[in-house]
Amino acid sequence: MQKNKTYQSSTDAKLDKQIARQAQKNGAEIRVKTPLKEIRENKAITTSGEIDFKILVDARGVSALAQKDRTGILQSAQYEIYADWIEKGKVEVFLDAEKYPGFFSWIIPSCGGTGKVGVAGRGINAMQTLERFLDQKGKYSIIRKVFAPIWVNGPIENFVSGNTVIVGDAAGQSKPTTAGGIYSCGIGGIYAGRAISKFLETKKQDDLESYQKAWIEKFGKEFERQSFARKMLERLDNKSIDAIFDALTPEMIADISNNDDFDFHTSAIIKMLGLKGSLKVAQTMFGAEIRKLPRLAQILSKL
To answer: How far is the C-alpha of 41 from the C-alpha of 144, rounded, in Å?
Structure first.
């Protein structure tokens, strides 16, 4: 197996640079290598001195949640690789409750035979698990490695605390099903920016807290459903997973593939459970809790 050097350039880095350029163009002062040490009233104490602030935005990512709730943090590893076994336009997801408890492994093609291959799970050694997965697939060359914790427990209770505004992964705005958050976290940043701008004009706390209300209104219901889907995934063993997929018809697989995406929106989960056998499995495991999904409740009432 040939393994190349690890490179740091990526689409994510390009996005960060573009956002930084836009921020600087609009008057932002960007400081790198300036870790935050502590907060004293309205002063941020950093390794480069004190910075006065009116509003502090906490965008530290999953690390900000480590002291709040470690149960929502899973270890993940993802390699960007070149391999001739990556199929263009074909996203692959592998569910295995023993190898990837509470999550899955994935292959996402990019272009020219490159793609992102990753694993995540509760209590696993992500790097070792990923390399075992890759060894089973065949030859590959590594372009880039990423090791990072992911958050799957949904939004935290309060996005705003005094004059601190929490955004993105630090606010639990990544999806409970896949931990993806480009859209939900990005919109959170937009809502937070608008709320902060309004607050600085009016000095009304309600204007600052409108950020969380707007985010919950847009994402709250879907995140509740995804949290339910996550609970389902956490409780399924391989026998149950096999039973559900064995019950799927070719028509249902085509419908899910054509109308849902890698983020496993709950419409796909409901379609998968929309079978008598699968529903009985789910109802046994969850009881009345399953009725939080309206469509499932309708199906159950007809059985």
So the answer is: 41
- What b/e sequence results for 95-113 when a residue is b if at least 16 CB atoms lie within 10 Å of its CB, and e otherwise? bebebbbbbbbbbbbeeeb
- CA atoms of 152 and 234, how far apart (whole Å): 11
Give percent of the chain with pLDDT exceeding 70.
Answer: 78
70-151: CATH topology = D-Amino Acid Oxidase; Chain A, domain 2 (3.30.9)
Q: Tokens standing for 189?
A: 């940043």
Provide the pLDDT for residue 8. Answer: 39
- pLDDT digits 0-9 by tens, 250-264: 776 676 666 544 444
Say how many C-beta atoms besides its own lie within 10 A of residue 87's C-beta. 12
pTM: 0.80
Superfamily of domain 31-67+154-228 in CATH is: FAD/NAD(P)-binding domain (3.50.50.60)
Establish how many alpha carbons lie within 13 A of residue 158's alpha carbon, considering only the half-sphere containing its beta carbon: 9
pLDDT of 291? 54
